[in-house]
Amino acid sequence: MCAERHPLCEPALEDVAYLSRSANRVRLLRALTDGPVSRRRLMESTGVSRTTLGRILNELTDRGWVERETDGRYVATTTGEHVVRAFLPTVEALETVRSLGEAVQWLPPSVDAVGLAAFRDATVHRPVANEPLSFARELVDRIESATRFRTLTYLAPPMHSFAVVMHERIRDGGLESEFVFAGGLVEHLAGDPERRRRWHESVAFGTVVYRYDGHIPCNLFLFDRTVLIPNTDPDKGPTGGFLESDDDDVYGWATDLIERYRDAAERVPAETFA
Length: 274
Prior knowledge:
CATH topology of the largest domain: Endonuclease, Chain A
Radius of gyration: 25 Å
Strand order of the largest sheet: 3-9-8-7-4-5-6-10
Helix content: 40-55%
Oligomer: single chain
Organism: Salinirubellus salinus
Protein name: MarR family transcriptional regulator
Order of helices and strands: HHHHEEHEHEHEHHEEEEHE
Structural class: alpha+beta
Distance between the termini: 68 Å
Number of strands: 10
Domain Methanogenesis regulatory protein FilR1 middle: 134-263
Largest sheet: 8 strands, mixed
Shape: elongated
Mean pLDDT: 90
């Protein structure tokens, strides 16, 4: 048993190292969690050679992660199943770190609720050289075809054309929209006569605006079921880049996050922009 004063248990790290040194070990143990399998079927499904297969099965059995049944088939023990469930998310998360590169910094800490691996297939849109408004143009393109738009943000609409197109779509009844703004942003928008007019009309036509009097740690844009997360921090790379994901788990996480801040916010009436 690990000493309490050591936060990292050496035997546990040895188990991690044992699995991580061989993809075949992980592949076989994962396959055996699906139920009893013969050696022949394991060879066919995993592509592991006969000699390597026999050696790894013996190793996994000695560790108590696999057992051989009376009919000669192999299956993961309950311990082995726990090992797989604990190990695979770590591998998937590290795969995500590699695939996203520096863009992994653009994700807010709250992604822990969904797990980093959910962003494994996210698309990284890096800023276009000498085009500081490339992200804003992306928003315009998406708002033109979306039927529902939701955002959690401390940013004012980044481009005049985006604000105009969004307002037109709201006014024409083609866009359902909801905004959760950080404190002070509502007053900023209401302080400009042209913006104030558009927002007053938008709210009158059904747009829902909330004021959250506190810190909002990130910016999320949801176009229907597509999640966009922009980088707005120059310390994390050139601004204007963003992550895009259509993953259901990412969408669920983003929706929950927006709703959590919305539930703690105050709804803004149209008169605020009068």
